[in-house]
Every structure is written in structure tokens, then in C-alpha cells.
Design goal:
- There is one protein chain.
- By secondary structure, the chain is α+β, with helices and mostly antiparallel strands.
- It folds into two domains: about 90 residues; about 60 residues, no CATH class.
- It is about 30% helix and about 25% strand.
- It has four helices and nine strands; from the N terminus they run E-H-E-E-E-E-H-E-E-H-E-H-E.
- The strands form four sheets. Strands 1-5-4 form a three-stranded antiparallel β-sheet, with helices on one face. The chain has a two-stranded antiparallel sheet with strand order 2-3.
- Strand 4 and strand 5 form a beta hairpin.
Amino acid sequence: MLVNFNTLPETSRVWIYQANRSFTQTEIEEICSKLDAFIENWTAHGSDLHSGYEIKYKRFIVIGLNQNLNIATGCSIDASVHFIKQLEKDYNVDLMDKMNVSYKQGEFIAYKTLSDFRKMAKDKAVSKNTIVFNNLVANKAEYIENWEVPASESWHNRFVK
């Protein structure tokens, strides 16, 4: 069951998929339509999953699930992964690689491989104050509080001194 992302409780589980490029406005509209259809029909053992989503910075797809009502099962998680992989094919974009890093560069979002980010940190091109996106957050509360943080407050801190 599709619900407004903002109405999901803070304990809701979140999955964040970062794109290796920005989506166009047309792509965002199409992806939203596909997300609406997928989430409206997303179930776990026949029970509706109360879920919502948002697309941030034309680059991140964030899906939230109210697990107080129904918990995602292996099959329902597999269905969501299959859906995301189909988006990758449809838009020729990488959404599943968790080993790449997105960070703010002024008003822009930069995307680098982990090895490139590590080299940039070594070369002082990024610092402990660089705002990074911690896509490993587990729930909506963490997403709100700890998704956009200085590198020193994220798993990225091992690269910046």
C-alpha cells in the first residue's frame, strides 16, 4: 500500500539506492510512476506493505517501509531488488553498487568510486568536513539524522584524517 513517505514512522526501515548520475526530470516522473505502481502492489505473504518513497537530489531513490504493520520477507525484498534492477536496465544507470561514494561539492552531488574517494582524501581534495551520504542507515530516523553528515561522522571517516 502506497503511503506518503513523510507519514511513515521514524522506525520504518529504509533502503537507499544511489544513482551514478542524475536523473532527468522526465526520468524522475517515469520512475515515480513506476514506484507508485510497484509499491501499491508490494506485499509480504499476501499482506500489503505500507511503504512510501522519495527521490532526493535527482539521484537517490529512498524506499521506506512501516514494519510496525508488516515486515518485509525474503520474497518481498527480492521483489524490490528485482524492481530496482529493472530500473537500472530501463535507464542505463547503476543503483545497486554500495561501494561508490556520493558527496556534496558545493550545491552539486559528486559520485566517485571508493578508490577515487580514498585517493581524493589522501590528496586532501575531500576532508573530514565534506558532506557525504551514508546510505547504510537502517531506518527513517537515522535517514533524517545521519544520512547527510560530515565524513568524520560516517563510515567514510576511515579515509579522511
